[in-house]
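Fold it.
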Amino acid sequence: MATVVAQSHFIFGLRTGVKNNLLYFDEQTVIFPCGNNCVRYNINQKCQKFIPGTERSQGMQALAISTNRRYLAVSECVEKATITVFDLQHEQSRKRKVLTGGEIAVDKFVCMAFSPDSKYLIGQAGGPDWTLFLWMWEKKKVMATVKTSTDGPINQISFNPEDNTQICVSGNGVFKIFRYAGEILKQSSTFKTDTHHFLCHTWMSTEQVIAGTDAGQLMMFESGRQRWEMNVTPVQKVSSQSEKQDCNETFSTLPRVTAIVGYSNGFACSAGPGTVCLFEKREEEDQYKKTKEIKIPPELFSNDPSSAEQQEISTLCISPSEETLAASTDRGQLYGISLSLAELNKGVCAQFEHLSHSSHSSVITGLSTCIRKPLMATCSQDRSVRIWNFETNVLEMYKEFQEEAYSIALHPTGLYILVGFSDKLRLMTLLIDDIRTFKEFTVRSCRECAFSHGGHLFAAVNGNVINIYSTTTFEDVLNLKGHNEKVRAIAFSADDSRLVSCGMDGAVYEWNTLTGARESESVLKTCSYTGVTICPDAKTFFAVGTDCSLKEIQDCQILKEVRTGDVVCTTVAMSRSGRVLFIGTSIGTVRAIKYPLPIQNDWIEYQAHAGPVTKMVITFDDQFLITVSEDSCLFIWKIIDKEGQGLKREKELIYAEEILITKSDLEEKNKIMLDLNARVTELQEENKYQLSLRDIEYKEKINELTEKCIQQINSLNAEKEVLKAEKEKQQAAHVKALSEVLEKYDKEQQDMESSNNQKLMLEYEKYQELQLKLHKVQQEYEQQLHSVEESKTRALEEMMQSYEAKLEEKMMLVTQYQDEVQQKVREFDEYIKQEEEDADMEIHEIRMKYEQNLKEEKKANTRLKVELDTTTKQFHVLQREIENRNLEIEKLKQEVQKLQSVIKALENDITGLKTAIQKRDGIIQDKEKSIYELKKKNDTLNKTIEVMEFRAEYMEEQIEPKENEIQELKEQMLEMEGELKEFHKTNTQLELKIAELNLKLKTKDKEMHKEMRKLQDIGVLVQRFKADLHTCVEFIQDPKRLKEHIRELYKCYVESSDVVEKVAVDTDTQKENHRQREHYEKIITTLKNQLTRDTNVLQANNTKLMKDNVILMKEINDLRQELRTVRMQLHNYDSQSSFNKSSANTRGAASAGRNGLMTKQSLEEAEKIIQFQRLEIQRLKQEINGQMPSSRTKLPPLTN
């Protein structure tokens, strides 16, 4: 199985806090730090190359590029501060040299600079020493060192652009120029700068330096003195002392000059937040004029568009041809502008454009990918949500919100997004140009959320509870409770039937997403887990935490544990093929481990981020690994095998191209398109008409101009003839003057020649005399030289003989060494040839691939640029028209609402009238029915009266046996009360006995304590006796003294009467104790038995009473119901009798009256009896409640 490797593919973001963090390599390429790497970004081709940082680096401090754009210096902190120099002309930017402070301890190098010829490098060490180093970097030789400051920070150092020996240093209260001479750096000029804090400077010529301060001032220094001082923003002149004080107070609010860069026409500098000013040199010497202001544009989709303008410029740089100006900000954004375009629009305030896509400016907290589209989503503490395309390496969409976003999840279709904010969890749609919320869930500060692979469910973490919602109905399907502390990571299985979670309580749980049951668990309280992933077969899990290890968990057990050294793992991800695991660490590195896990600790480590890795995701097709970190950078890694090919896919993924758009937006856009097309046709016709008019005007103008030209030509010909005549006259005058001058010159020349000939003759005679003297002196020196040469030749011959012998010996050795060297050189040449051939083949193949890709991308870029320009123009026009249409729609909606309210009121009135009519019809029908029913009731009531009379007689007969039963129950109650009194008596007797026994027990305890004290005293005596015995043993060889000591011991510790008394007392007390203990044990057992019997009897009696009460209550309720029915019948009877009085006979009335009186009397007697029985039952209940003891209260004592 081929090992899987991750290769850097693309990076989004910029590392802030690095000095000089933006550099131009050539016209199209910039270099900037990102994570723990330096990126070479081609602006036109949108491609990147990477320069990896050193292992275990604690962070980059500064960058510097040589003047010939060949070498890059990177300052880092590993174990100690280092400066690494890279060769940029080499294809892979190989490392050339690593420079350190040598014997001087250095924590970090704050800033650096190359010399004009790129041979020397200067580096400024940090506090507290603030030492400046000068290296000849190719030889790693420290040429000189000097302390530049005592307390304040140094912000910038630089070489004179034409002098290797002159160095400028600026900082807090420091502006110094040093000169290198005689292996020492000496300060060549001093300035009074104690009150100024210099943030940056630039050389304008060999003697002029312009510096910027934190108070918004620009100062120019030239040849050891300050020439002028000016403010970036205009400030009024100060006259009085009070005005001076006010001016000093406002210095803090002035814009800071944080960056400055010079070019041929002048210089550019920052002028406060989001502003860069261009200054050009005037015709007057050493004076500069502000010509242009360039501002950072506001963000379109930001919550506060002006916040982008508040970014502070950290670095400025100009391209080699001085065509473009680039800037980096303190929020990690890159901007650029064409200087030629900025100079053309002198009247208008220019604006920067993004060099690359805008990126996050704070910690990235969430990351997610989808299946159907090549998209990834991120959220950050900068309150923004961004959608990226990992195939085209483009920022597709972003939006800023009012709350911080803690977690994010992208739906598998790529059309929806789930974001956990500080106040709520929101489900949003990804539209064509916006992110809109359409559902909110009451989950606060959701730190983890995830969609299932099918997209039908999503899980959200609420503290230590995991809520699972349905994506279709938005119902809370399951609540998974089990973690004791916060849940840090969750992951769905491939078939969405399982969910794995891990938390800070050291627990990893597997949940069933259908039932909510916990399938398996693994708890390790010593570890706080931060990341978990699930194997494709859903049988094994992998978790990482604070214990610096990777754990493989299966069936509630940890199968394997891979230790990661002293590095804490923060997150883990596994490829869908199951071949490799990727781990993110707290130091920002990414580790790749083969699966199955190796026995030994074997992994490949990649330098990635400058902070802990927060999230890590592998795309669905296993082609890319995506990592994010606290350094606000996003890395895309290409997953390949060692042969350089991507991982094989089971099926080729075809990404969907559909996007969401609302119907109203689509209709509006279609209308706008039609309007625009009509407008275009109108404009074309207008343009044609205007062109024809202009053609006519231009023809008329041409005719007028031709006439004017002919007139001017005629006038010029006349002037020409006049000038020719004047020229001929002047030529004749000049000829005469020339002839006169030539005659004068000939005469003067002849006089000069005669005088010079005489002087030459005299000089020649002197020369001959001197030659004779020279000849004599030469002969003398030749004789002396001849003698000296003879002596030297003799000495040389002797020396030659001796040295020739030595040379022969050395030559023999040299020939031997040369043979050996030639053999090694041949072997090395063959090895290099083989390596070069292999490398050339690989380079040729890669070049062919990239050239093809480049051609395709160029074509696509050109096409997209044209489309972008047209669409942006259309977009702006459409936006304006959309706003107008929206206003009209809102007005129409308000009118529609008013009309609808009027219609509803009228409809309500109509319905009310209809219902009133229906009610009246119903009332008439009801009255007719009631008349008919009353007639029927009269007949039925006559029959019921007879039945009621019969029932009343039957009730009277039943009341007597009921009264007998109540009396029997009363007698039973009295008997039960008697039994209760007896039980109370027995209980009180038992309590008295228990009290007596407690007293006896207390006395026994006291006796026991006394005995214990006696035992302690006896123990003390025994110890003293042992000590005395030990002293006696010393005199074992002296029998007399031993005898005396034993007698003394006997007198001290033994008396005869005491011995006899103790023995007697001990035997008696033991017998008495045994006898009393047996007696009390028997009493306690009998009392216990009596208590159990009494409690059983009480319980049985209570249950009997309760049952009897229940029976009585039932009977009473039955009687009440019968009474109610009788009363109702009587009432009906009375009403019926009154109704039928007129029609009834006198006889019938008399008989009915008698019967009615009889029934009334019997009913009144029955009611009295029932009331009396109720009162009696209540009295009995009160007595029972008062007499029955509760289970918790003690029984009353028994009285004799």
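The radius of gyration is 56 Å.
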